[in-house]
């Protein structure tokens, strides 16, 4: 596999990869987002002779991720990718909302060069931290000329933003790409493809319109997620509609229902969602199943999420509303 010897930029946002614990044996009682990217890199000798630039963009636990950080990430990544001397960008990030950030960046930037998000399940102070290998793999992946778009590199595997999801709360191989599977792995610094690489084409200029809208927006349009479950009665949806009556700013512009199975919804919740739709709230059905998708059904008045998980469907709908 050919590798381009070019500069890569590493943007730090925090997470367990930058976590610190008082005890080496403690893989859970740590504080995320404590160690600077430069300090993480200092422990990886293989990075020392590479052409790298570093920016500490933030230092947070990714459970607290939000639009403000995404705006800054999108702006900095777009800036660096536009540089001829930059081959790709790496983002260090917490695992908990990694798939949301990856999907957001893919939708907003549609990058031709690689944008590689990486993470760790164990803090940097652990007896055997997984962050250093993940970071090294991510930097190598970001220099791969065949790699394109936003991917997640974790535990030696390369996952596409659209498919990746965190599926385990503790194991170091916490990510999965569902039925699609990972696209490649990183072995000894080389990307080995499981499927022929698909290099994204330079995006038409209209695609940069979404980035411009994101950068000037004060917030994403409000889209909430509700879940269909036994005894679901639509009370959450009606509470949101009632809050919107008191203050229009509190009315969600969209709702994603994490539906059962192939997009089925408890009849009481479904009635409330139809009410919401009549009030102008856009409603999307995703499945709460870990695998599979909602099969399109033109007869269902609640549209499906086109294969996206509930958290990604929330972002897709918010970006759709923003771009109108
Ligand atoms: C986080 O998401 O920032 C904390 C958890 C992790 O990175 O594994």
Layout of strands and helices, then pairs:
Blueprint: E1 7-14, H1 37-42, E2 52-60, H2 67-81, E3 86-92, H3 98-109, E4 114-118, H4 131-142, E5 149-154, E6 157-160, E7 165-166, E8 175-176, E9 184-187, E10 190-193, H5 208-216, E11 223-227, H6 235-246, E12 254-259, H7 267-278, E13 282-287, E14 303-304, H8 310-322
Helix pairs in contact: 2-3, 3-8, 6-7
The protein binds succinic acid.
The site of succinic acid has 12 residues, from loops.
The CATH fourth-level homologous superfamily of the largest domain? L-asparaginase, N-terminal domain
Bound ligand species: succinic acid
Q: What oligomeric assembly is this protein in?
A: single chain
Q: Unreliable stretches, pLDDT < 50, 5 or more residues?
A: none
CATH architecture of the largest domain: 3-Layer(aba) Sandwich
Q: How does the major sheet shape up? A: 8 strands, mixed
Estimated structural class: alpha/beta
* The top level CATH class name of the largest domain: Alpha Beta
Strand content: 15-25%
